[in-house]
Amino acid sequence: MFEAIDHIGIAVADLEAAIHLHTKTYGLPLVHREVVEEQGVEAVLLDIGESHIELLSPLGPDTPVGKFLEKKGPGLHHVAYRVDDVAAELVRLKTEGVRLIDETPRVGIRGSSVAFLHPAGSGSVLTELVTPAEGH
Ligand code: CO
Q1: How far apart are CA 104 and CA 60, in angstroms?
Q2: Distance (Å) from CA 80 to ligand 1 centroid
Q3: What is the pTM of this model?
Q4: So what's the pLDDT on residue 15?
Q5: Tell me: the pLDDT tens digits for 12-37?
Q6: DSSP assignments along 84-126, one per residue
Q7: Percent of the residues in the chain that have a pLDDT greater than 90, as a whole number
Q8: Which domains does the chain have, with CATH numbers?
Q9: Taking the CA of residue 3 as centre, how many other CA atoms within 13 Å lie in the half-sphere pointing to its CB?
Q10: How many degrees, rounded to 5, is the angle at CA 43 between CA 60 and CA 7?
Q11: 56 Cα–ligand 1 center, Å
Q12: C-alpha 8 – ligand 1 centre gap (Å)
């Protein structure tokens, strides 16, 4: 079952400007910054209560986030729910007929285990499942 909102993913065209807005104007602490080559992004995590904001800056135009920016411009990109066991949830959701992007979990930001559900089966919302790494 889904336990909490782990983070909201936001696609940004200007990462430094977005960091400035979220840290200086909104006052959120920047807690992690990482280039995730596999996903074609530089990602920044900011703490907000028990959850995070994840800023996503594409490494190039041919990456998923690069294509998203081209098509829709900067803005809300995905919602990520925290779950106890991503692999088990994928099996359960598949049984429920939910369309998956990832059939098996992959490594996400900060060593987390993640998988994406297809927006076509999730109310047009790109949806991510996350099990944070130990200690996060
Ligand atoms: Co995410």
Answers
A1: 25
A2: 6
A3: 0.94
A4: 98
A5: 999 999 999 999 999 999 999 999 88
A6: S-HHHHHHHHHHTTPPBS-SS-EE-GGG-EEEEE-GGGTTT--
A7: 90
A8: 2-131 (3.10.180.10)
A9: 13
A10: 130
A11: 8
A12: 7
